[in-house]
Amino acid sequence: MNNSSKLKRVLEGGGFAVTAECGPPKGANSDVVLKKAEMLRNKVDAVNVTDNQTAIVRMSSIAACSLLKTAGLDPVLQMVVRDRNRIALQSDILGASALGIRNVLCLSGDHHIFGNQPQAMGVFDLDSIQFVQVVKMMRDEGKILGGDDLSQPPDLFIGAAANPFADPFDFRVIRLAKKIRAGADFIQTQCIYNLYRFERWMGMARDMGLTDKAYILGGVTPLKSPGMAKYMKTKVSGMDIPDELIKRMEGVPKDKQREEGINICVETIQRLREVPGIKGVHIMAIEWEEVVGEIAERAGLLPRPVFG
Amino acid sequence: MITGEQKPIDEIREMIAPYKRILVLGCASCVAECAAGGEKETAMLASTLRIAAKMKGEDVLIEEKTLDRQCVRDFVILLDDIIEKYDAVLSLGCGAGVQAVAEMFTEVPIIPAINTEFLGETRDQGYWLESCLGCGDCMLHHFGGICPVARCSKQLFNGPCGGAMDGRCEINPDVECAWHLIVDRLTKFGALDRLENIYPPKDWSKKQGGGPRKIVREDQQK
Amino acid sequence: MTGEQKRTLALYYCQNVPASGERERQDLEEKYGGNIRLFPVPCSGRLEPIHLLLALEEFADVVYIITCPEGTCRYSEGNKRAKKRVEMTRTIIASIGLEVERIGMIIGSKENPISLADHARAAMERTLRLPPSPVHN
After folding, report:
1. What is the least distance, in Å, from the CA of C43 to any CA of chain B?
2. DSSP count for chain A of H helices, then E strands
3. Is A274 helix (H, G, I), strand (E, B) or coil?
4. For residue A2, what pLDDT is reported?
5. Chain B residues touching residue C97 (CB < 8 angstroms)
6. CA dihedral in degrees (A169, A173, A175, A181; nearest 10)?
7. Which of C48, C49, C98 sits opposite B51 (nearest CB)?
8. For chain A, what are the domain ranges?
């Protein structure tokens, strides 16, 4: 088993990368993770494992990443600063690297008020940008915060998220620049439905030279129903779903809606591939991992490159 | 100012249930400003408790007094002459006030009647907003006078996060996005480029380094 | 039985209410023989929950506030404020199990001005519909 990041090798080799998302179970069952691993095997280059997303308690991201790694996949460890202070974050970074995890995505995390532990104390000791900076310092300088040396630095490809659709719009690209300057090697974006706005944001990123400094992967999520689209539009913060898309989903019979959602997703990927500066796509099929292969196939992204 | 809100009356009645002679003790400083524990609120609470006691036929003495500041010993000492009359004090002071009284009169149980909440400002009549966390290392000058620690739900120093929409925080549309305000404010100053800097991790030892923080000033001492 | 027992009504009224001068007040106190205690206030907005609570605590079965008609307050918002304070005081007494009807409010009508005596009669009628206050019995 090669012990380097496949995602990094694809991107550095100039390939168009494909990543997917795997949500760990609300339980201790490893088989759920391994089943998802089989659905995604050879369909994508790397698999993001969410970290108690929407602040719902689930199997730890590190453990699920380790299961994926053992199964021969390349996991992307999502880590949120909501639940751990700088001691725990740095410690987990070392642990993840020791387990052979080679990618990390540094995030703020959904606020705990939304989850099933609203009484929790939110930590937020570091913010996501500071966290990126710390991981970079650990990797490149072999030091932790405060300057102590590490006996061995972690080996991690560092990622960060970007939401081109949140407000204030003009500031979004400045924040992207900060994340890249902090040390992000790759960026995965929020789900893209409003391509017009996304292209404007990408144009600004190109003008600032950011697309040459980090690999930007566009995020996509297949819609299952018009109801889901409406829910995401109104209830999920930072989500921009144009009304035409909702109408398009409503315009097909109920039993064809999932298929239409996949069609939209494939078309979006095809459009994204034309956007200068985009280096890959991140397919977040929420609790619907089985369609990732079909989407990748129809978008012409298969087969995935194989490294010896 | 320190803000607070009165506890539910049932909770208060339960806490004072074992006592027969109760002093309801207000504070005319912060908690008066936020209409939680000033002279007026103290009189209201005392009257309410007396009404409740009369309804239940309970034989209790409930009297009231309001100190200028419950958290300053020079004022708390004024209770010296009267405290013996009571077997409990129901304090409408903030947490600091309650403890200052408890510290001075160790024989009498001091019961909190309000939940102390935050350091805030009076935004409007009947509207108080948290604006300071007392972090011990003020950085407001960097952020256009808007505190990301107290007013951003995720305490971001490099915000805004991806959840801000139309200037509102993702946790609740009633909450202004502090970072939206910061960006607007710095744009007005022509200082938006300041936010291109990455703010380093905060030194929280100034907030919670080791036990309660204290300030000692020899020049202020006798 | 309860209807025959004595009730005491505390009546706070805005001095803008028609026919509410000192003379009328004395006439009413005489007429009701102490069953109504009348408290003129320059503006109902000056009343605080503590005034209503103390009345209920010390002597009254029921408290009423008579305000001037909406939009006619000479201090512009007094009667609106009075309404909010009545609501707050009702919340307080409800929290200790006292009927909210023990605090009443009558907003005068601009089109049909009603004299203090008529207001007092209406408030007393409603007072008599309630049993004596558990605070004093």
Report:
1. 19
2. 11, 8
3. helix
4. 58
5. 52, 55
6. 180
7. C98
8. 6-298
pLDDT digits (tens, 9 = 90+) for B143-180: 999 999 999 999 999 999 988 888 999 899 899 999 99
Residue range B20-43, pLDDT digits in tens: 999 999 999 999 999 999 999 999
Test B160 with A129 for CB contact under 8 angstroms.
no
Distance from the Cα of C106 to chain B's closest Cα (Å) equals 23
> According to CATH, what is the number of the domain A6-298?
3.20.20.220
Size of interface B-C (CB pairs under 8 A): 41
Instruction: Read off the pLDDT of residues C108-137 as tens digits, 9 standing for 90 and up.
Output: 888 888 899 999 999 999 999 999 999 998
d(CA A47, CA A66): 12
Pick the CATH number of B2-118 from 3.30.1330.10, 3.40.50.2300, 3.40.630.10, 3.40.640.10: 3.40.50.2300
Domains of chain C listed by start with CATH number:
6-129 (3.40.50)
pLDDT in tens, A98-126: 999 999 999 999 999 999 999 999 999 99
User: Residue C70: pLDDT above 70?
Assistant: yes
Give the one of C48, C96, C98 whose C-beta lies nearest to B40's C-beta: C48
Nearest by CB to B44, from C50, C98, C136: name it: C50
Q: How far is A289 from chain B (nearest CA, A)?
A: 24
Cα B211 to Cα B216: distance, rounded to the nearest angstrom: 15
Contact A52, A116 (CB under 8 A): no
The answer, yes or no, to whether residue A129 has pLDDT greater than 90, is yes
Interface-testing mutation among B48, B56, B92, B125, with chain C (most C C-beta atoms within 10 A): B48
**Taking the CB of residue C28, how many other CB atoms lie within 10 A of it?**
19
